[in-house]
Structure formats: C-alpha cells, structure tokens
Amino acid sequence: MAPSTRNSSALPGLSDIYPEWEDVARTCVGVLRMEAGTNPTDPALTALVGELAVTDQQFRVWWAEHRVAHQDFGSKRIAHPLAGERTLDWDTFRYTGAPEQQLVLWAAEPGTSDAERLADLAHGRSGSAQDRKPQ
Q: Which long-range CB contacts under 8 A does 5-14 form with residues at least 24 apart?
C-alpha cells in the first residue's frame, strides 16, 4: 500500500507543501485503486479505503472516478518554507525481496536554482548563494 495515499488525506498540511495538491492527491487515489486491484483481499487495504470513504468527501469523489495510476518516477513542485517553491525529480526503487518496501530519492536538475537551494538545505543554509552575498 502506498504510504502517500493515507498521508494525502490524513495530513492536511500536505496541501501547503504541494502547490499542485489536487493532482498529487488524485494520483495517490489512483495508485491506491491500482493496489486494491492487485490485492483485493488485503484486509488492511480494505479498511483504509473504507476509512477514507467515510471520513473524506473528496476521496469518495475521486474513488468513484475509477482512475488507476502507477507511478515510479516523476517531477513535483514542492513549496518548502525555507527554500521556496522548487521542482524536484523523484524515483522509486523497490526491493524485489520485499516489494512493499521502497526507497524514494528526490533530486533537482543539476545547474538550476532548484539544485542550488537543495544544496543549501543539505548544508544547513536557508537561502541561495545570491541571497547570502554582502550588499
């Protein structure tokens, strides 16, 4: 089961992180539907769908659309409180011995302001090099 599916409804602050929130959440519901088709007898998955259907009206609408999605890579715009809005690429890697476990790597296109801001965050700096230059 994709952890992002539960997070998309259960953590309201995620809509602040993803400027294209509706697209992200709708894709999560499509991934959940794909998972439900793959594992129709999984009691935890059935319980999750039931919980979301009862508690989240938007989930009910998207679930009724019957969209199916599978995504292992892509790009997302992220609104970070220190680095601002950035576009990051992501890739998912699954371990064949335990396919329910996955590693998601995020990166920025080299040489872009997105990459510069990501490096700043990695080094504990809260602004770009241009922001830090003396006036």
A: 5/29, 5/31, 5/32, 5/35, 5/48, 5/52, 6/48, 6/52, 9/52, 9/55, 9/56, 9/58, 9/59
